[in-house]
């Protein structure tokens, strides 16, 4: 279990993480979402013991990971800086990563490098942006670390490589379950991988719940335009599109059984909403309603 209590990260006057309290059960894939500058990397850096918290506490199975060598060997943190020597060849980088970690699978690392078309003889400095990200993905997956933190690892990867990475991630997670935290801005692309969604906003926790529960916060209503308009009147609309006489409106807020029956009787189709749409709505509402953030870190927008 990972337990954060009132975790705070400050850089001078900037409060990047603001008294954040969160518990993460082991063996799940978490999606960590937040707008630019919301504190994701700062939070993950503390979790990976790359940085000390300015306040509050972090405990992994009851132990502070900072300066705990065993916990550090059990954590892999991949971020855009890659944290490897540019002069080293890929083979050497992988060899070093393997010596650091008891859970490293060297054969799997080679297979992944092959999948991502990485030439093991190349130096890191000679890699393209996308290839550097692929190298990060190889290290992040082949480490098989009990706590795997992947902070925007997809930067520069083309769509095909990203798809291969997500497929590998899921397949390897299913055969070697571990705790994976994925921070991403390409939300819709990876949302199906998340078992739980964590949204932070200006350093504070906005949402932490199962992805299905999160999705149920919204609903897409489709049908003849007049019937849709009548049904959605007075509700919070996240977006709408029309094609001919058909209209689809995305609503915020779950429908009760009576409303579902009424929609069906009116010939309307109901469907879940994308995680990204909900995320954009919640973080926009939070920005407009900033001071309404209560002590539990939930905003008025979530009620
Ligand atoms: N080394 C640093 N020195 C000073 N301020 C920093 C430093 N690192 C981050 N910050 C500030 O802390 C805040 C949170 O930054 P952080 O990188 O944690 O956000 P993020 O959610 O990862 O952002 P992004 O999605 O843009 O990568 C921002 O206001 C940022 O400017």
What does this structure look like?
With 303 residues, this protein is an alpha/beta fold. The chain folds into two domains: 2-213, P-loop containing nucleotide triphosphate hydrolases (Rossmann fold); 218-272, no CATH class. Helices cover 35% and strands 28% of the residues. It has eleven helices and 13 strands. The strands form three sheets. It has a six-stranded mixed beta sheet, with helices on both faces. The chain has a four-stranded antiparallel beta sheet with strand order 11-12-10-13, with helices on both faces. It is globular. Residues 291-303 have low confidence and may be disordered. Adenosine-5'-triphosphate (ATP) is lined by residues 11, 14, 16, 34, 36-42. Residues 2-227 form the ABC transporter domain. It comes from Actinoplanes digitatis. Pfam families: ABC_tran. GO terms for molecular function: ATP binding; ATP hydrolysis activity. This is ABC-2 type transport system ATP-binding protein.
């Amino acid at each position: 279990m990972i337990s954060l209590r009132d975790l705070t990260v400050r850089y001078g006057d900037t409060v990047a993480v603001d008294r954040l309290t969160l518990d993460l059960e082991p063996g799940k894939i978490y999606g960590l979402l937040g707008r630019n500058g919301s504190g994701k990397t700062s939070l993950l850096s503390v979790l990976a013991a790359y940085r000390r918290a300015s306040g509050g506490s972090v405990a992994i199975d009851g132990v502070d990971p900072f300066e705990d060598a065993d916990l550090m060997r059990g954590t892999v943190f991949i971020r855009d800086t890659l944290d490897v020597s540019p002069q080293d060849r890929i083979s050497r980088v992988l060899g070093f990563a393997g010596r650091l970690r008891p859970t490293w699978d060297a054969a799997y690392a080679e297979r992944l490098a092959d999948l991502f078309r990485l030439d093991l003889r190349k130096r890191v400095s000679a890699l393209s942006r996308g290839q550097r990200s692929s190298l990060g993905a190889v290290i992040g997956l082949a480490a098989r670390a009990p706590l795997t933190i992947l902070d925007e690892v997809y930067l520069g990867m083309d769509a095909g490589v990203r798809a291969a990475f997500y497929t590998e991630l899921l397949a390897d997670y299913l055969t070697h379950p571990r705790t994976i935290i994925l921070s991403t801005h390409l939300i819709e692309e990876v949302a199906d991988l998340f078992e739980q969604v964590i949204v932070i906003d200006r350093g504070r926790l906005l949402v932490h719940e199962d992805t299905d529960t999160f999705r149920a916060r919204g609903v897409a209503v489709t049908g003849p335009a007049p019937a849709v308009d009548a049904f959605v009147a007075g509700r919070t609309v996240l977006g709408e599109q029309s094609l001919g006489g058909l209209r689809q409106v995305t609503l915020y807020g779950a429908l009760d059984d009576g409303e579902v029956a009424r929609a069906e009787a009116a010939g309307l189709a109901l469907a879940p909403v994308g995680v990204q749409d909900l995320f954009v709505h919640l973080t926009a509402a939070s920005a407009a309603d900033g001071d309404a953030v209560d002590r539990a870190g939930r905003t008025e927008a979530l009620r």
